[in-house]
Design a protein that fits this description.
This protein has helices at 3-17, 20-33, 48-60, 65-84, 112-123, 130-137, 143-147, 180-197, 218-231, 241-252, 258-265, 270-273, 282-295, 298-320, 329-336; strands spanning 154-155, 160-163, 174-177. It is an all-alpha fold and 338 residues long. It folds into 3 domains: 3-96, Tyrosine recombinase, N-terminal domain (DNA polymerase, domain 1), CATH 1.10.150.130; 112-276, Intergrase catalytic core (hpI Integrase, Chain A); 294-336.
């Protein structure tokens, strides 16, 4: 069988188990890079060197190593599928391809102060319904998870939202306790849905456009995002980057644990969350300072403390014999530093 023949069957089965976005990504990558090249060949004739050259050519064309890795992983999945179907008995050659090492860390280059401004802008948005969507995004949810949320997955009495495995990227059942701010917003939308549908058990999408009574599209929310940025005089950044900004700020500025932030974002593995840990330049120096402090003997520490006491005494003496005797000792020390 040719690789194309196997792929066409493979992608049909994956349309049931994978998200529409992932399937679309697979189709795009395969049609662009594989179908007219490796795809025309019988899978049994393809060897390691074919895939290594394939990957090298993609890198030379300008694709990033991470992108090439994703394409190889898709090919590896096709090989695993063909082995399960007894269509192929050889090695999974895409897995053996060597790529240049690359930094998979995510860097938010904006300052912590600017990061905070973006997060506050989301929190203080005032545009009807869209402000509620933005507040939900501030809780770490992906845009698709928010605009596709239906009433059946909300328990407002308990303040919990549920995401079945089929409704989130991690493919695991997830549940999150909501903040009081978000619960208040959802209760108001729930009240409107009850009045609109004339039932105490409304169904359908939670976030609907008041004018069309249909759910918001990606495009509509992104347009609102641009308006929000303009209103707050903030430089443009993709709406999806809010997840990166949120994770970076929670970990590096507020000291939240990797495990808790990973759960907020719905990561299946904390390795994904670790990409957001940005060590500051001072971290290395502080670590060595701690080491050197541990090397000191009790005598060394006594002499240091005695020396500091003499320095403070000299400062106090200076001011006692000056025109500023009314200063308190604490004021003198604060004024002149440690």
């Amino acid at each position: 069988m040719t690789l194309n023949e196997i792929y066409d069957t493979f992608i049909t089965t994956k349309e049931v188990t994978l998200s529409a976005k992932t399937v679309s990504s697979y189709k795009s990558a395969y049609d662009k890079h594989i179908r007219d090249t490796l795809g025309t060949r019988d899978i049994s004739t393809l060897q390691y060197i074919d895939y290594q050259k394939f990957a090298d050519n993609l890198l030379v064309s300008g694709l990033k190593p991470k992108t090439v890795l994703n394409i190889l992983r898709m090919l590896s999945s096709i090989y695993s599928y063909s082995i399960k179907c007894d269509w192929y008995e050889g090695k999974n050659y895409p897995k053996l391809v060597e790529l240049p090492k690359f930094d998979n860390k995510y860097y938010v280059t904006m300052s912590p102060e600017l990061q905070k401004k973006y997060l506050i802008a989301l929190k203080t948005s005032t545009e009807p319904v869209l402000k509620d969507i933005f507040l939900f995004l501030l809780h770490g949810r992906r845009l698709g998870e928010v605009i596709n949320l239906e009433w059946e997955y909300l328990d407002l009495s308990q303040g919990i939202v549920y995401y079945p495995a089929s409704h989130n990227k991690s493919k695991k059942f997830l549940s999150y306790e909501l903040t009081s701010d978000l619960i208040d917003c959802l209760k108001e939308l729930h009240k409107q849905a009850i009045e609109r549908q004339r039932t105490i058990f409304p169904t359908g999408y939670v976030f609907v456009n008041p004018q069309t009574l249909t759910k918001y599209s990606d495009t509509g929310v992104r347009s609102a995002w641009r308006r929000l940025l303009d209103k707050n005089n903030l430089p443009y950044t993709k709406l999806h980057n809010i997840r990166h900004i949120l994770a970076t700020y929670l970990i590096n500025e507020l000291g939240q644990s990797i495990e808790s932030v990973g759960f907020v974002l719905g990561h299946s593995d904390t390795k994904i969350t670790r990409r957001y840990v940005n060590f500051k330049p001072s971290v290395a120096k502080n670590a060595i300072d701690v080491l050197f402090e541990d090397f000191k003997t009790k005598g060394d520490k006594y002499l240091e403390n005695f020396s500091q006491a003499l320095q403070i005494g000299e400062v106090v003496q200076k001011y006692l014999f000056s025109d500023q005797k009314h200063y308190k000792i604490k004021d003198l020390i604060d004024k002149n530093g440690e």
